[in-house]
User: Fold this.
Amino acid sequence: MLVCYLDDSGKDPQNPITTIAGYIAREDAWQKFEAEVEPYFAERQVSILHAKELHDTDGQFKGWTRLQKQAFVARISQVSGRHLMMGLSMSALKGSYEEHAGYRASGTPARRTVTPYTFCFQVIVDWILRDIRIGRAVHTEGVALILECGHENNPQAEEEFGYVREHYGLQNVLWSISFVPKSNCRAIQLADVLAFYSRRDGVGLLKAKEEGSATYETDTMVKIICESLPHRGFVATGFHDRPPA
Assistant:
């Protein structure tokens, strides 16, 4: 069975974009990832990786240099490249996400999206089922979704998961959805990092386009994260795939 860990970023009111992101891999691959990455956390005395703390050089990351933070994420990303299948990130503008709500799986009945969070979740599930890089394995082996607990819209995600599962007869494909705390495993913490920096990258891209800039420099941390593993994402203004560097 495959397992997809997902987390969100941008639920606070001042953020113009909300993002859901994470990684998918087979169960045994996740176990190998956890075992291989743990010594890096122990070496740097990081008990829980909170992306915002890392970015703000706060909490356990107080006193770290930018290079130390990038090197830490690079080591984790290199391990993910050896064990995980791909990364997924979906972002939606809070003020205008309904403009994108027409994006649905082919044949999906038009249903009102309650929040940008739920819309992002819908698209992620569609990608999991349809992306040619993972879809065959998903339909053959089945997939379980694990999200970080505590989000006010998790019940909507659970309802959407149940709807797709029942409406399309995917009981043997979409196995389950569950919710865990950030402290549960490195996998959910890795999803947090991808969600946080994907959202920041989306905000930067959006700002550049609003200012009429013809070029945009991808966030350095996003480049590091995406270097070793294929990623599929939607950053506010259009679809794009990030292949391995």
Notes: Confidence is low (pLDDT under 50) at residues 98-109, 236-245. DSSP finds eight helices and seven strands in the chain. The first strand starts at residue 2 and ends at 9.
